[in-house]
Amino acid sequence: MDLPTAWNHDDKSSYLSVDESGLRVNYGLGLMAGAVRANYPISPQCKLFYFEVDIINEGENKQIGIGFCDKVVSLNGMPGWYNNSWGYHGDDGKLFCCSGSGIAFRNLKGTLYPCVGLRSQGGSIEVNFGSRKFKFAGTYAYRCW
């Protein structure tokens, strides 16, 4: 079973760059939000999937979103702004579901990919899909149950 291990260098907004490791994402210049999908979807065999995102630099306006989306969701926005997309936004602490409002992270369906979105000049995040020990390993020792 293939599980997400890194961000997909070829499946991202032009406003974002992904480092060689595939784990760090940086927001470049621009005024629009951009997102990136993981290299593999979450397996349907996983009843629970866990990953951690470290905010390296929140950037100028702190607009960073973490969530899930399917393969056809536009990457020119934040997680949760489009149908089949769900996200938590750090700038306002709100959860977004399919078009920018509503309850997120309930009844998620389809082939879902972890994704992050940034709209914050200087913003930078790093993901841990389980290649190293999780910071909250006491609670989540595995990434797929």
From TrEMBL:
Which InterPro entries does the record associate with it?
B30.2/SPRY, B30.2/SPRY_sf, ConA-like_dom_sf, SPRY_dom, Ubq-SigPath_Reg
User: Where is the B30.2/SPRY domain positioned along the sequence?
Assistant: 1-145
Pfam families the UniProt entry points to: SPRY
Q: Which domain of life is it from?
A: Eukaryota
Q: Which Gene3D superfamilies match?
A: 2.60.120.920
Instruction: Fetch the PANTHER family from UniProt.
Output: RAN BINDING PROTEIN 9-RELATED (PTHR12864)
* Name used for this protein in its record: SPRY-domain-containing protein
The species this protein belongs to is: Gigaspora margarita
